[in-house]
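Let's practice the habit of predicting before peeking. Look at the sequence and jot down your guess about where helices and strands might fall. Then scroll down.
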Amino acid sequence: MILKITLLSNTIITNGNGDALIDLDCDYNEYGLPYISAKRLKGMLKDSANELVSMGQDINVLRLFGDENNEGIIKLSDARLQDYDILEKLSNDFKPDLFKNSFSVVLSQTSLDERGVAKKGSLRRFRAYDKGLIFESEIDENFKQEFQKDLELICLNLRYIGHKRTRGFGKVKCEIIKNKKINEISKKSGDIMVFTLLDDVVLTNLSGDENTIDTKEYLSASAIKGAFKKLGVEYSKPQNAYFYDDKNIFYPAPMNLKKLKYAQENLKIYTEIDEEKEKEELKKNNDFKIEKKSSIGGYVCIKNSILSKAKISTINKTHVSLADKENMSLTELEKYESEGKYKNKIFSYTAISKGQQFAIKLMDEENFSELDGKVLRLGKSANSQYGRVKISFESSSNKESNFNNEFYLVAISPVLLRNEIGGFEPSLDALKNELEKQGLKLEKIVISRYEKAQFYNNSYKCKTPQVMGFSIGSVFKVSGNLNQELVQLKTQDEFGFGWLKAYKSFDNLELKSDKKDNETNQNSKNKLEKPKLSDDELKNIEPTLKNILKKDLEQRVFLSNEYKNYEIQYPECKNRSKDKMTKSELARIEKVLNIIGFDNEKSIIDLFKKEFKPKQNGKQNEFLDKMERNKKGLNLSGIDIEKFKLPNYDKYYDKEYLFYLKIKTLISKLKQARKETK
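Done guessing? Here is the structure:
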C-alpha cells in the first residue's frame, strides 16, 4: 500500500536547521528534493490515532505504532515526491539549490510591539514546501489487512502537519491507495547475495553513550538471520555481509598487515616477516631507528598483489523522543510533573548511508533465489525511517578457491571456542582441535586479539552473558587442503560466529593509492551513469521540469556578468546630477513594475505617466523628463535576455516568461540602486 499526502497549503516540515539567510529550513535529501521522514510521519499518524481514541474510536494504538518495548505493525518509508525516480535522474543536470527553490518558497515574518511597529531583531525567515506537492510513502507489504480500516480512518483524520499549523500552514489530504502494478521480477541465481540499502541502516554497536547510538559498518549475521525468519526462510549458517563494490567483497583487514605511518609515496604493505628483515638490515648497518608503522584497519580486498580499502559512508542524524505521559508509570509521572514540564530526550544515530551495497559469498549448498527482489528491514528503528534493504544475486568474478600446503586464515567474525569441559575459551588447544575437524593443521598464531561476543538464546528468550573469543582480524597460519575461500568453525556457527577467510600469501602487497582509487571510481561512475529520461517520463513531469528550468534560467541570469554590469543609469548620464534617480523615484518605479505582470512592454511608459502625473502648471513632471532623456537606460530591452539560452531546453522558454524575467531582473537592480542611493 501507498500512503499519499497532498499539500493543500504551504507546509513547513522543519529540520530545526538554518543558515545565514534562512532561520528555519526544511528537510531535503542530497539532491535537494524535499521529503518527510518516516519517523516524523509515523509520529503524525500516532497523534491522529490518539485524537481519534479521545473521541471514542476503538483503535489499538499500541498494536499499530508500538512503544519503547513493543514493535508496531506499521512500517513506513520516507515520504518522497511523486515521480521521485524520474526527478532523481535530473540530479546530474541541476544543482540541489535549484531543486530546493523549485519546490519551496522562502517567507518572512516579524513581531509587532503594542504600537504596531516591528520589534528590533524579530525578523525571521523560513522555508515552506509549495502548495500542491504530493508525497508518497510505502507501507510494508506485511501490514495486516485487519487494521486497514483503522489506518484509513487515521489518515482521514490527519488534516494538518508540520510547523505553524495554527497559522494557515500544513493543511493536507492524507489517503491510502493501492500499489501500482509492478512487473514480476525474474528470479536470478548466483553465488553472491547482495544487499542494497534503500534507507540508512543502524546496526547498534556496543560503544557509545546513552544518547548516541553508533553503528557497525557491516550487516550482522544475526540481523540478517532474524529478517529471513520473518519471511519464513531459515538461514542455518548466517554470515556477516560486508561492503561490495559490484565486483569484490571487502572483508575485515588482517591484523598483521601494516603500512608506514607517515608515508606519502611508499605504499608497501609490511608483514611480520618484512619487519624482521628490516630489523636485521638495520642491525647490520648499526641503525636502530625503525620507522613507525600503523595497521591497515578497515575493510580490504586483496587481488593481484594489490590491497584496496573500502570507503564506507556513514551519516549522523539527530532525533527528539517526546515524553509519553499516557504510558508513564506513577513514579515517572510524579517525577516529570514535579519538574513542571515533560522531558524530551535528544539522541543521535550514526547510520550506514543508503545506496551502498553489502554482500555474502554463499556456500555451495545454500540457495536463496526465492528471495530475489525481496525487501528486508534490518537494525534499529527498522519500522520507521531506517533499515530497508533489497536482495539481489550476482555471480562471483573471483574463481580462486583452491588452497594447498601452507596458507593463512583470517577471522572475519568472532571465533568462539570451547575447552574440554565445555566452557568458552580462546585457547591454542581449542583452536587446534576445531581446525583438525576441518582437516587443517594449525602451524602458527600469527597475531590475535580477544573480544567480547554475545548471542540470543531462543530457549530462554534472552541474550546470553558475554563470552571471550578470537577477535575479527586475527590471523592464523595453517596447512592442509581447502577447496573454498571461506570456512566456518562449528562452535556457535548457527549465530554467525567462527567464519574465516583464506589467503594464499601476503607477500609483496601494495596499497592502492588514492589516485588509483579516483580512477577506479571515475570508471565505475561512467559505467553507472543514470539513464536518460524517456519522452513519456518527460511528459509526466513537464510542469515540474518547466519550473526547474525557469529557476535555472533565473540563476544563470542573476549570476551573469551582463546582469552584474547592468546599471539603471548609463555611464554617460551618471555624472549629471539632474539625471540621477532619487530613492523615492526608484521605489515608485519598482511599484509600477510589480503591477505590470505580463502586459505588453510598450505600455510601461504609459503606466509610469499615470504614476507620475504632470504638475498643475502644465509642465511635465521632472521624473518624466529623466525618463525621456534616459529612455534607453530604463527600457527593459537594455538587458539582452536573448544571450541566456540553455542548450537542449530552449523549447521550454516562451517570450512571455522571458519578458517576466526582464521585469524581475530590473526590479532586483532597482532594489540594489535604492540601497546605494544616499
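How did you do? The radius of gyration is 33 Å.
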